[in-house]
Write a structure and sequence with these properties.
Helix content: 40-55%
Number of strands: 5
Radius of gyration: 17 Å
Length: 174
């Protein structure tokens, strides 16, 4: 296939280890560079009325979180993401794969497509979950119905090839 720059998008789902392993194998086989990307979502940027610990309008959201506590929470998330990404980076470099990592705040589909274009990726590897089969909350299934899945967004908008790894065993975690 001759891929030289592979971007792998990971999250905290059970499918991540499979997606990452596939990207590692491809990068090693193709002697490609690897970019590990994780997207963080700042819900307060989406809805300024949202506060950490809030309940999406079902109950009052005055939970006592101050802007400084919000900043502390976001900083903690960033530090945790960096440590987590470094673990994956070490796995790749142990296999002599030239690897870097990034984390970004933003809508995952748009962020993955944008970072892939900026980094000149020639392949994006990411996972896809069947939310109905995996027992996800109905809100996630409804959100996917209205805005589409991350993988669909990336496939539609990426300027390079996209490998979508589908969870073929949704009952394994039940």
């Amino acid at each position: 296939m001759n891929f030289k720059r592979i971007l792998v998008a990971i999250n905290h789902s059970p499918l991540t280890s499979i997606v990452f392993d596939r990207a590692l194998n491809l990068a090693q086989q193709e002697q490609a560079q690897l970019m590990i990307l994780h997207c963080l979502v700042d819900f307060t940027a989406i809805d300024p009325g949202f506060q950490p610990g809030g309940t999406f309008g079902l109950y009052p959201i005055n939970t006592g979180f101050s802007p400084s506590l919000r900043e502390e929470t976001l900083q903690l998330e960033i530090e945790q993401a960096k440590a987590w990404l470094q673990e994956y980076c070490h796995q790749a470099t142990a296999r002599n794969i030239s690897t870097e990592y990034q984390h970004h705040f933003g809508e995952p589909g748009a962020t993955i497509s944008s970072v892939a274009q900026e980094w000149n990726a020639d392949l994006i590897v990411l996972g896809r979950h069947d939310h109905s089969a995996m027992g996800y909350a109905p809100l996630e299934a409804i959100a996917e119905f209205f805005v589409g899945s991350v993988s669909n967004h990336v496939v539609d908008r990426a300027n390079c090839s996209v490998l979508v790894i589908k969870d073929t065993n949704p009952d394994k975690d039940k």
